[in-house]
Amino acid sequence: MKITVSHQDEMRFEAKTEKSSFIIDCPQISPIEYFLSGIIACSATDVVMLPKQQGYAVKNLAVEGEVVRNESAPRKFNTLHLEYRFDSDADDTLAARWVMASLETYCSTINTIRDSVVITYTIIHNGNTIRENEKMISGGGSSVDFGSLQGCNA
Question: What is the pLDDT, as a whole number, of residue 100?
Fold first, then answer.
């Protein structure tokens, strides 16, 4: 992946990707807001694609992200809470699996920050809260020691 960002005028920049381009208009939308939007959009695409591959449909998807940042520079993310709201024709267990699969495996942006940011999530599926303030299994802002794992001897 390669992106080139060029200064246009004042505090406007053009970002050119291999596929397209877009304008970054600071301070209208700050780079950190674009960054958080990218994180959320990455996971949201998973929560649409995974069900579709399994023959289900997700409707009314909205993902809200709230970040707490350091007070002083660099103002890195300390915590990130994501709230997923959506409807589907699946049961709650399967709906939760889609979100967890995105968080733990598929979403590269979340997986890029998860070793340094405590990430929690809430899932509201078909109007019911099915997970509330859950922590990522392998995230948490530090390395997690699961001990040694023994495989099957063949």
Answer: 94
Output the six-digit token pair for 14. Answer: 């053009």
The stretches in the chain having pLDDT less than 50 are 140-154
pLDDT of res. 27: 86
Q: What's the rounded Cα separation, in Å, for the pair 24 and 46?
A: 25
Query: 134 forms bridges with which residues in the sheet?
Result: 121
Q: Would you state the structure tokens that stand for residue 66, as one six-digit string?
A: 């709230």
Integer Cα distance of 96 and 84 in angstroms: 10
Please tell me the pTM assigned to this model. Answer: 0.85
- Domains of the chain are 29-135 (3.30.300.20)
Question: b/e per residue, 7-23, with b = 16+ CB within 10 A?
Answer: eeeeeebeeeeeeeeee
Contact 117, 79 (CB under 8 A): yes
pLDDT tens sequence across 103-144:
999 999 999 998 899 999 999 999 999 999 999 876 544 444
Q: How far apart are CA 70 and CA 73, in angstroms?
A: 7
How many angstroms separate the CA atoms of 46 and 102, rounded?
6
